[in-house]
Amino acid sequence: MSSVVKIINSRKTREIQDLQHLSKEELIERIHQLESHVTQLRNLLKPKVTLDNPKNKHSPKVFDHKRYAKRHVLLQVAYVGWDYAGFVVQEHTEKTIEAELFKALEKTRLVESRETSNYHRCGRTDKGVSSFGQAVSLDLRSNLSEGKGVFLPDGHQAKPGTTNEIAYVAILNKVLPPEIRVIAWAPVEKTLSARFDCRQRTYHYYFPKANLDIESMRIAAQQVIGEHDFRNFCKMDVGNGVVKFHRRIMDIQIEAIDNSTDSYSMMRLTLIGQAFLWHQVRCIVAILFLVGQGKEDTKVITDLLDVERNPRKPQYGMASEVPLNLFHCSYSDADCQLIYDVESLRYVISCYQTLWAENSIKTTMLREMLDNLEKLGGIKVQNQLKGLVHGIEPKTYVPLMKRQKCESLEERINAYAKRQRIEIVDSNVTSVG
């Protein structure tokens, strides 16, 4: 049995009743008041005259990028990425490093648009990952008419006598968010690509010593050096055409950052390679953590690199993204000579010192609270790694090589090809219908 609920607006009812008792003159006065109120609202809702509105007599001329020379440059960009959705622009959010970088570039009129800037990036860092040495190459507006990387657009008239280049670093840092800073720039040849001409990339991963056997981790880590098939140390990206997983690791080191010897002392893993697969560094770190905790033998790295015997990746959680930093991107000295400005560096240091102070204070406060808790209980807990590896930790540990396996590369390729064929058939049926 259904029922109908009628909602009565008592206020509206009272207003109607009040109007019924008004005289003709009072009704006319009320109408005038309402018309005046509507006029006020329309004025408030009118679009404001913008600087780019050609009807605005006092608006400045539209900035004409064709009047200026261009210069192909490489920028070293640092960022603390913990609160960002990654480096690359994404459709569902504007909170990315790349989006903020291009906002600054367009606001300062250094580029007209991303599409016309000949833009390349070195690394695609994921959500939460930071960088000290990210590199991007692109064409920027220039004051000069000649020099390395300088070129003149069609119809541009050279202006001889100008010798001072635009202060790219200082200008951009004034409009970028505090977590993002340009460290240096370099004039480069127009053909140089930050992505394809990078000779090697260096990643840093920071973690507490906790109860880890660092020496066992170092022994295991040496096995990744050289060229290997790293399909068991990454997230396969078959959908984007990645079907080859050979990469070359040049060096890997694990060293202490401070002089402390307790479980709170901080360590740094340095990994150097020519190029990396999706999540490769975090997968390597996750396996090394298992070795350091004594859950896996040092030879587990060799077993996972042997894709003939182990073509399917065992399921395991990745290491957290927060401690990861793309620290350096290397280019030929002949191709790229970075220019550092002392005043700009001073500004960047001051900005990052503010971030350091905020986070260091939080760390110091937590450490003092932990010290007092341990004194109260007369105990020592070495669980600092909790939260640094994604996934649920089982009550009973299952060795990696005995765990459930993911699909093999061939199975993934076949599954992707099948999905593509189905989508093509579906699209054809839809178009015919």
Automatic annotation (TrEMBL):
Gene Ontology CC, one term: cytoplasm
Keywords (A to Z) from UniProt: Isomerase, tRNA processing
UniProt KW Isomerase keyword: yes
UniProt keyword annotation of Isomerase present: yes
GO biological process annotation, one example: tRNA pseudouridine synthesis
Domain Pseudouridine synthase I TruA alpha/beta: 220-332
Family annotation (Gene3D superfamilies): Pseudouridine synthase I, catalytic domain, C-terminal subdomain (3.30.70.660), Pseudouridine synthase I, catalytic domain, N-terminal subdomain (3.30.70.580)
GO MF terms held by the record: pseudouridine synthase activity; RNA binding
InterPro entries from the UniProt entry: PsdUridine_synth_cat_dom_sf (IPR020103), PsdUridine_synth_TruA (IPR001406), PsdUridine_synth_TruA_a/b_dom (IPR020097), PsdUridine_synth_TruA_C (IPR020095), Pus3-like (IPR041707), TruA/RsuA/RluB/E/F_N (IPR020094)
Pfam families tied to this protein: PseudoU_synth_1 (PF01416)
HAMAP family in the cross-refs: TruA
Family: Belongs to the tRNA pseudouridine synthase TruA family.
Protein name: EOG090X083V
Gene: EOG090X083V
